Amino acid sequence: QLVESGGAVVQPGGSLRLSCTASGFTVDYFGLGWFRQAPGKEREGLLCITNSYDTVYYTESVKGRFTISRDNAKATVYLQMNSLKPEDTAVYHCATAGYYDCSGSWGLWGQGTQVNVSS
What angle do CA 8, 64, 99 make, to 5 degrees? Predict the structure, then answer.
């Protein structure tokens, strides 16, 4: 399973780091991605990290602000979010990609962690 943590209420312009820890399987061979879903909106893919630590972006809106990283020894993928905006408010989910290079269908999903950006 995947379990996200780190969601919180943060002011605009602030930073937050989310974590997603896997258990029951080895993450080393999977691409690991982050998604979000805001109220009333469809789920949006953000970015993914390959098993060779390359980043794949799925949306321009987070480039330069969000960074993905992974620690295979801890079976954890991180999402560092800087310069947060109110429109970043959403439930954030992590997921495993079908293949190591972030291609393929998304398989296992976490339950999500809530991020609220508000003054």
Answer: 80
* Mean pLDDT for the chain overall: 96
Q: How far apart are the first and last CA of the chain?
A: 34
Secondary structure of the chain in HEC code, one letter for each residue: CEEEECCCEECCCCCEEEEEEECCCCCCCCCEEEEEECCCCCCEEEEEECCCCCEEECCHHHCCCEEEEEEHHHCEEEEEECCCCHHHCEEEEEEECCCCCCCCCCCCECCCEEEEECC
Residues 70-81 have pLDDT tens digits of 999 999 999 999
Label residue 10 by pLDDT band (50, 70, 90). Answer: very high
How far is 119 from 39, CA to CA, in rounded Å? 18
Nearest CA among 8, 36, 15 for reference residue 110:
36
pLDDT tens digits, 68-110: 999 999 999 999 999 999 999 999 999 999 899 999 899 999 9
